[in-house]
Amino acid sequence: MEINAQATEMTETIFEILEVAPSEEQFRQVRRLIEHELVERVRETEERHAKVTKECCPADEDLAHKIARAIRKSNTALIANLGSLR
Question: What pTM was computed for the model?
C-alpha cells in the first residue's frame, strides 16, 4: 500500500474513532501530517539500514556503499512521488 493511501486510511480511522465529521481542510491537514510522519520514519529507517550495512560489512565496504546508495536513490524517488501527490 502506498504511503498516501495509508495516510488517508489512518486519517479516516482517527476521525471515526473520535466520532467527528471533519471539514475537507481538517481532513487534508491531518492526512498531510500523518503522511509527513510516515515519510520521516521511512527516512530514519533508511539511515539506520545504511549505517548497519556499513558496520556489518567492513570488508565489503564498497558493496555497502553501493547498497546504501541504492536505498537512498529509492527513498528519493519515494519522496518525489509523494511530493507530486500533494
Answer: 0.61
Residues 62 and 3: their CA atoms lie apart, in Å, by 31
Alpha helices (H) in 3-85, listed in sequence order: 3-18, 24-56, 61-85
pLDDT digits (tens, 9 = 90+) for 5-29: 889 999 999 999 999 999 999 999 9
Nearest to 33 by CA among 15, 8, 61: 8
Specify whether the CB–CB gap between 33 and 8 falls below 8 A.
no
- Listed in sequence order, the residues at least 6 apart from 11 whose beta carbon sits closer than 8 Å to its beta carbon are 27, 30, 31, 34
Angle between helices 61-85 and 24-56 (to 10 degrees): 170
